[in-house]
């Protein structure tokens, strides 16, 4: 049986300096996968390399036996908020409507049904009252909800979110994680670059632990252990113990 996503021998370098190397993992459909590791570990680079947004030096990536290019329309990607131009003059409902474009094809305009679907996605994240606001007017948590709505509008099978919980309010974080859990129950596969170790066990089924190379990948209860975490974070267990990390 092909896994929903297979990554084999992934290597990425910038200007001749290795950023990540020898990363291998595979996961079945219907999992919420956390990607964790210290700052500068290569988490975002790995995600972008898997999606073909950053060149790979080596490695193979497949989605149910197909290349990322073949399933591009089935993939929704939410980048870090710091990588988005919030001054771009676009209102919230039009931002979400962009999520329908991959399925429309070239030179086709969104129809009434597409606009209704975009509004439905906006309602799902609780942002329908802001439909006519400029995206730059919103708070960090509101912006993140809107970009999740855009991803939902895409009707994707695979969701990749890069640090979605950074700099947002608790209410928005709760809304987002509950929607991601619902997507998982629908059989979708979700990858989330994450930094708060205290919430790992509540949020994820599976983990990828990385620090330049792969430290561990698999069920949370197998990877989220003090001895394995110490290999990545190089931090004594006395510091980690306050984060709910098991022995």
How would you characterize the overall build of this protein?
This is Iron/zinc/copper transport system ATP-binding protein. One of its GO terms (molecular function) is ATP binding. It comes from Virgibacillus alimentarius. Belongs to the ABC transporter superfamily. The structure is a single chain. By secondary structure, the protein is an alpha/beta fold. The protein has two domains: 137 residues, 3-Layer(aba) Sandwich (Rossmann fold); 73 residues, no CATH class. Helices cover 33% and strands 23% of the residues. It has ten helices and nine strands. It has a six-stranded mixed β-sheet with strand order 5-6-7-3-8-9, sandwiched between helices. A three-stranded antiparallel β-sheet has the order 2-1-4, covered by helices on one side. Helix 6 links the parallel strand 6 and strand 7. Helix 4 crosses helix 5 and helix 5 runs parallel beside helix 6. The model has no long low-confidence stretch (mean pLDDT 89).
